[in-house]
Amino acid sequence: MKLLVVDDSSTMRRIIKNTLQRLGYDDVLEAEHGVEAWQIMERTPDINVLITDWNMPEMNGLDLVRKVRAEKKYENMPIIMVTTEGGKAEVITALKAGVNNYIVKPFTPQVLKEKLEDVLG
Fold first, then answer.
1. Where is the Response regulatory domain (predicted)?
2. Among residues 115, 108, 99, which one has the least CA distance to residue 19?
């Protein structure tokens, strides 16, 4: 299973990637912002899950989610938003844009595991 982690913080990308690897997911790609993520998705059509931050330069996570959801081939791709934006309005906005699950930073490895299992069924 191939996952794409998008966050402008290299430390946060490393934390998420290390957690995913401990959970048995070894095929993890990384992007620093939405534009880079989209380029990776265009080159790598077999990505199964998108995990993205909200606040990033170039293209933020919400715009990335909207762009991904606009593509027919990605309409069922599980998307998890990992962000400091924990307000009810932000969660609703993200869900309406097409996010399947939402994690507020800081989070524990257990939370990431549960959210990932939830979106994968």
1. 2-120
2. 108
pLDDT band at 40 (very low <50, low <70, confident <90, very high): very high
In whole angstroms, what is the distance from residue 78 CA to residue 11 CA? 23
User: What local confidence, expressed as pLDDT, does residue 84 receive?
Assistant: 87
Q: What fold, for 2-113?
A: Rossmann fold (3.40.50)
What tokens appear for 98 in the block? Answer: 């097409």
Kindly give, in sequence order, each residue whose CB lies less than 8 Å from that of residue 21, ignoring residues fewer than 6 positions away: 28
CA distances from 28 to 18, 23, 33, 84, 101 (A): 9, 12, 15, 22, 19
What's 71's DSSP letter?
Answer: S
Give me 9's structure tokens. 């913080």
Distance CA 40, CA 47 (A): 9
Q: Identify any residues that bridge with 52 across adjacent strands, giving them in sequence order.
A: 6, 81
pTM of the predicted structure, to 2 decimals:
0.94
Residue ranges covered by each domain of the chain: 2-113
